[in-house]
Design brief:
By secondary structure, the chain is an alpha/beta fold. It has a single domain, classed as TIM Barrel, CATH 3.20.20. The protein is 40% helix and 13% strand. It has ten helices and eight strands. It has an eight-stranded parallel sheet with strand order 3-2-1-8-7-6-5-4, with helices on one face. Helix 9 packs across helix 10.
């Protein structure tokens, strides 16, 4: 089990100083989400030999390893120019992963194709089907490269993706049928995945290599005023990334079910809600995750 910190709340810390900080927070592993000086959102990685070398040396000096890299590109875009650029960026990211000796890449199926966006698209281009077909084209390009390089890509359905629920997401991953493509389970997205937490996790058995840990509230709760979002009737995909215990996820069910399905991958803390108290949050999450790991894996 690798317990990692997603340091997005600490993105102001220079890259070379990040490993020492992560170690200070109590973690031995980094989940490197997008940041401007490495894997930037949507554009080419800003990684050159001196930067990569310095980051690797800083990790070695502090006894910290890179558990995951998170590239975010428009690989499910039905627009040719966006898709082609996403492929170029993905290929460069795979080179970076090899250079950084990071065997696990994590990403989303691809924003877009939601029912609301499709309804607003009068030309009928940005439909769920078009996004899914673009994704399959991406798999045709990338899976052979990932297999050749010995890397694993772990993907997650995300609110406002063309696939938001866990069941169809797992069908797609199993259909790809490659050891190089596996599943991520993102706890704060649980209420989008399905209505039964344990059952949603069980559906990932045999494919799950990565899980993100943060709390959230159930946006499906019966009270119409549970969330007040303007304008009324907004289809915003509301969810949170809170400290454990501040939302409604049943953490005993979460960790117990992970143990039951034989999960032994990367568990990452991905709280984004408390930047004004980020250090305390990161330390708290490290202790809480370990407490549940000790309870169910001891």
């Amino acid at each position: 089990m690798k317990i990692a910190l997603d340091p997005y709340m600490h993105r102001h810390i220079p890259l070379e100083e990040l490993p020492a900080f992560v170690k200070e927070m109590g973690y031995d592993y980094i989940e490197l989400s997008p940041r401007a000086d490495f894997l930037q959102w949507w554009t080419r990685p800003r990684v050159f030999p001196a930067r990569a070398k310095a980051f690797k040396q800083a990790m070695k000096n502090n006894g910290v390893e890179l558990a995951t890299l998170q590239p975010m590109y428009r690989w499910s875009s039905p627009y040719k120019d966006e898709w082609e650029m996403a492929m170029d960026n993905w290929k460069r990211t795979i080179e970076v992963a090899v250079e950084m000796e990071c065997e696990l890449l994590i990403s989303e199926f691809g924003r877009g194709g939601s029912p609301e966006r499709s309804a607003a698209d009068t030309q009928g281009i940005h439909t769920p089907e078009a996004c899914e077909n673009a994704f399959w084209r991406s798999m045709d390009v990338l899976v052979p490269i990932l297999e050749r390089e010995g890397l694993t890509l772990s993907v997650e359905p995300h609110p406002e993706d063309w696939v938001e629920e866990i069941s169809p997401a797992m069908d797609i991953i199993k259909t790809i049928n490659s050891k190089a493509v596996k599943a991520s389970y993102i706890a704060p997205h649980s209420y989008y995945y399905g209505d039964d937490l344990a059952e949603s996790i069980r559906q990932t058995q045999g494919e799950l290599v990565h899980a993100r840990v943060a709390d959230t509230f159930n946006h499906k709760a019966s009270s119409q005023l549970r969330y007040i979002v303007n304008p009324p009737g907004s289809t915003a995909r509301v969810h949170q990334h809170l400290n454990m215990g501040e939302g409604e996820i049943d953490w005993d069910v979460f960790f117990k079910t992970l143990h039951e399905i034989g999960f032994d991958g990367v568990l990452s803390s991905c709280v984004f809600a408390w930047e004004e108290n980020a250090e305390a949050s990161s330390k708290f999450m490290r202790e809480e995750i370990q407490r549940y790991v000790n309870k169910y894996w001891a």
